[in-house]
Write a structure and sequence with these properties.
10 strands, D-Maltodextrin-Binding Protein, domain 2, alpha/beta, 13 helices
Length: about 375
Amino acid sequence: MNGRISAWPGAPTVTRRLAAPALAVLSAACGGAGGDALTVGAWGGAYTRACKIAYHEPFTAETGIVIRDAQYNGGLAEVRAQVDVGRIHWDVVPMEIADAVRGCDEGLLEPLDPAMWAPGADGTPPEEDFFPGTLTECGVGAEFYATVIVYNRENIPGPKPSTMQDFFDLEAFPGRRGMRRKPMGNMEFALMADGVPPAEVYQVLDTPEGIERAFRKLDTIKDQIVWWEAGAQPPQLLADGEVTMTTAYNGRVFNAQVLEDQPFEIIWDGQLLDFGQMVIVAGTPNLEAALEFLAFATTPRSMARVSANISYSPTRYSGLPLVGTHAEAGIDMLPHMPTYPENLERALRNDWEWWVNHTDEMNERFSSWLAR
């Protein structure tokens, strides 16, 4: 992870126009709005804690603008409901990239000008400092993260699992499995466990036969799955012994390992590498303050402060050299990042454009499969 890591060269190229925001310049926002408040969506748990330390609290100290959290578990339903009735309660939301692009296409999010972001730590223009694909019409890249397989080593006697195939092997590793109650990630994991190389997963998934193949593989463990929805749940399921293995966000697992001394082990084989974006809800009356907040939160320094508290990687090239040790434990953070070279050996980079085009169809198929 020195300089230009090889974490994202295979990412989809941004094809959507990068537009100017409703307010043309950020300079009007940068005067501060002391005493005001912003409501920011929060994934909760260790991630929200890291964000508070990295940029919520420093932003408030610098501007006087108070940050309030609103629990958010993904998707567009809550944002859509606010925009449809014209009563905006959230200002800024951290979103998965596919949701951010779909929300932009629906007019639910404010367009953003990429030139408004701070230059890189080395003076590089922002459009060149962000990794390719992490800036879109309505979103700015926040961090790289991964969905991984994790197990509690104290609950698995003998040989330990090490591959995606092991997650689906109930004979060799009996016990319940935790999975997020969404098709994204689960479909990809099923195909890799069924022998599809990471580089071919979306090619296979792009066919009716591939979709059926993924569901057939999920069928083999369906009656042993415990479904989770919030990122804080998988570590708790493991700690309580409710599951033998679970999918989880790598940063949540890292914090359980380091801060709670949990005997958890990450399987990096087949990790689904992704990045999150920060967006602004369309029609917010606090647009200027929200723009100011995004500009502050997406500086290389703010991203590195996130990486000092949870193992998520900056989406800016100049942020990587700023990543050092954990703020509390003092351990080197680089080997724990999803973009660390050894962790990338069999990684699958999420094809968010595929999911933008197929989310509704796959959600419907997945709901029908769950109901069977």
